């Protein structure tokens, strides 16, 4: 399955690599190679990182912490202390290096740098009282996204992933009930 970068924040996109979290969790990061591919595909991160077993475990732990804290925000409850410890520790490390040239922006760093960057990005979103964090309203999706739309009226994480599916389902339902 392809990765989706529709959450409005790379750390939330990382959390979104587990779909259908409540019913039938589907984890797109089954092995370190999947994580390497995810980092390469995510905008603003280094093109090539290597994930060893320890770094992979750290990434999954950060991912679950981000998800838990985002869910805490969505539900309006206090942050989970263990997840706070994980994200704050990850954020304290060095971040990827960015360089400007005529060819544009180049980002370099290892996976640990990437995790620090993701943790900081998540913290910025989670700490912002004005940020509209929502869970996708397609039943079973469970992706949490940052709604930056005007008036915060978005109801789905992404049009391709969920919006079109919901519209198609509504169309089929209308067709069934019409005589
Ligand atoms: Zn969705």
From TrEMBL:
Gene3D superfamilies: Jann2411-like domain. It holds the Pfam family zf-CGNR. SUPFAM superfamilies: Jann2411-like. Residues 133-175 form the Zinc finger CGNR domain. InterPro entries: ABATE, ABATE_dom_sf, Znf_CGNR. This is CGNR zinc finger domain-containing protein. It comes from Nocardiopsis mangrovi. The lineage of its organism: Bacteria, Bacillati, Actinomycetota, Actinomycetes, Streptosporangiales.
């Amino acid at each position: 399955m392809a990765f989706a970068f529709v959450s409005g924040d790379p750390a939330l996109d990382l959390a979104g690599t587990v779909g259908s979290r409540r019913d039938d969790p589907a984890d797109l990061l089954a092995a370190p190679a999947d994580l390497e591919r995810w980092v390469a595909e995510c905008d603003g991160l280094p093109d090539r990182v290597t994930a060893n077993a320890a770094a992979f475990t750290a990434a999954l732990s950060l991912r679950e912490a981000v998800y838990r804290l985002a869910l805490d925000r969505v539900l309006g409850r206090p942050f989970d202390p263990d997840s706070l410890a994980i994200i704050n520790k990850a954020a304290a490390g060095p971040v990827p290096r960015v360089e400007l040239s005529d060819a544009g922006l180049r980002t370099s760093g290892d996976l640990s740098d990437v995790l620090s960057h993701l943790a900081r990005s998540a913290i910025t979103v989670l700490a912002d009282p004005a940020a509209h964090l929502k869970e996708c309203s397609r039943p079973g999706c469970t992706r949490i996204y940052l709604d930056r739309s005007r008036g915060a009226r978005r109801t789905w994480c992404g049009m391709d992933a969920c919006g079109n599916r919901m519209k198609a389902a509504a169309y089929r339902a209308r067709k069934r009930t019409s005589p």
